[in-house]
Amino acid sequence: MTIVSSSTEKKKQGTERTPSPRSITGLDATNFFLADVQGGVGPYLTVYLSSARHWQAGPIGIAMAMAGFAAAACQIPAGLLVDSSLYKRALVAISALVTALGCLLIVSLSGMAPVLAAQIMMGAAAAVIPPALSAISLGLVGRKRLPGRISRNQGINHCGSFLSAILAGVCGQYLGLNWIFYLVCGSAIASACGLMLIRPTEIDQKVARGSEDESNEAPMPIGRLVAQRPVWVFLGAIILFHLGNAAMLPFAAQVMAKSHPNAEAVTLSACVIVAQFVMMIVAWGVGRAMAHGIGRKPIFLLAFMILPIRGLLFAWLDAPSAIIAIQVLDGIAAGIFGVIAIIIASDLTQGTGRFNFLQGMVALAVGIGGGLSNLIGGYIVQYEGYRVGFLSLTVVAALAFLFFLGFMPETREADNHAQASLQPG
């Protein structure tokens, strides 16, 4: 089900584009290095606050939730900014450097206030990076080649996360947990260098916001877009997805920090490494599945189905080796989400000029779900224990699966699946 304006019913959108090898290399390098920047320090902050600062689960939950809430507050402005800005590369570079500054703030100053301030900064930066990167990709390659390009973006991003997790484990174990934060700073600088390789003249600004490449129409009114039922169902499903998922790995990290206090960085890095390796493969597989005509909904349903299984396993298994093995499931679910969520957003906004706005709404839903997951879950764990916390997340994850299954329509157009080819662009 695609939302289009009347004029776009008469013509196809997103003429295939062929960017230069330099721009493609720059986009690949940017995705690789941003892997260690895009989500801030993620679960490593949980380990750092628990081990180095000796925080309890409740305050850690507040700190983890703060980034999600800050990102949520900035999502809609970020999407509108990306839609209107002609300087999308600069937006990504500035956001990466803000994340680096937040990391330095955490390790340089003690107390709760600097951590919360840094989380707010990184949350705001995280609101800008995903829609800006997707907009650059869409503007470079066009809508026909977007599924293949997003699949490639995610695969490279997960490869970067895979390698950075190895470095984080080594740094955390032998140099100290502080070096994990310094590693993010270095990646932010490297991603800014990668952005400089992308030629701005090759980014079609109209296509990058979801408009027709030859259309002079104004973007669809926001009220008309958000009034569409598929849009709200999609966003509601994403909130439930992350409400049931976001706190699982931080909880597991806290369990490991308590049971293995001298090896938590290495164990958590092993979790991230396993998940990112699986995501890298899954991102490629999702692109291939779409290229062969499989719809968005059945692929996404697989991700929803995995979450309650993962929650149950975490509730009953707490050995480090078991936690690492469970991360294979996280890799499958997250790998699917990273590709399909962007493609569904593109489907729902075809011809509207609101691609990046809806991406902002998607990220807002992610932030709301993730923030509530860490905040509510943190206090459930503090007062009822980790098993009850995991089981609570499992119930939410099961509801998310049923909601998406029952209410979300398929968004793939029957005559477009063959165009989602995995070309180098």
Describe it.
By secondary structure, this protein is an all-alpha fold. It has a single domain (19-210, 221-413), classed as Up-down Bundle (Growth Hormone, Chain: A). The chain is built from 16 helices and no strands. Helix 4 runs antiparallel to helix 7 and helix 10 (229-245) runs antiparallel to helix 16. The model is unreliable at 4-15 and 414-424 (pLDDT under 50).
N-to-C CA distance = 26 Å
H/E order of the elements?
HHHHHHHHHHHHHHHH
What is the fold-level CATH name, i.e. the topology? Growth Hormone, Chain: A
Number of domain modules = 1
Strand residues, percent: under 5%
SS-derived structural category:
mainly alpha
Count of discrete alpha- or pi-helical segments spanning 4 or more residues: 16
At the fourth level of CATH, the homologous superfamily is: MFS general substrate transporter like domains
Largest sheet: none
Helix proportion: over 70%
Mean pLDDT rating: 82
Shape: globular
Query: Which architecture per CATH?
Result: Up-down Bundle
Roughly how many Å is the radius of gyration?
20 Å
The CATH class turns out to be Mainly Alpha
Number of strands: 0
Poorly predicted runs of 5 or more residues: 4-15, 414-424
